[in-house]
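quick one, 125 residues, struct below
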Amino acid sequence: MKRIIHTTNAPAAIGPYSQAVESGGTLYVSGQIALDPQTMKVVEGGIQEQTEQVLKNIGKILKETGYDYSDVVKSTCLLSDMANFKGMNEVYGRYYSENPPARAAFAVKELPLGVLIEIETIAVK
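---
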C-alpha cells in the first residue's frame, strides 16, 4: 500500500506528481528544486543558496513523514553544470556529515524553472 505525502512546509508539486510517496517503510521524495514554499519562487543566489533551499525542502518532507536525514539511503543530484559540483558538495556535506547516503551527481541539459540543482531522495525506516 502506498501513502501520498503532501506538506505545505515544502513547495507544492508543479506537475502531475506527489511531493513524496511512502510504501513498505520506504519514502521516495520527488526531485526538489530551490523553491521557497511560501512564495513558490526560486530563491536568490547561486548554487550554495539553491542547494541549501533544496535540502531544507527535503528536510520538511522527511519531518512530515517521521523520517530525518539519517534515514536517507540514496540521493540523486541533478546539476545544471558540473562546475557547480564543488559548491553543491560543500552544502550537501553539512547535511550528511556522518554516514552519508549513497549518491549520484550528474549534469543535465536543463532543470525546471532554470534552477541550478534538483535532488531526489530515498529514505528507509
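Residues 77 and 120 are 7 Å apart (CA to CA).
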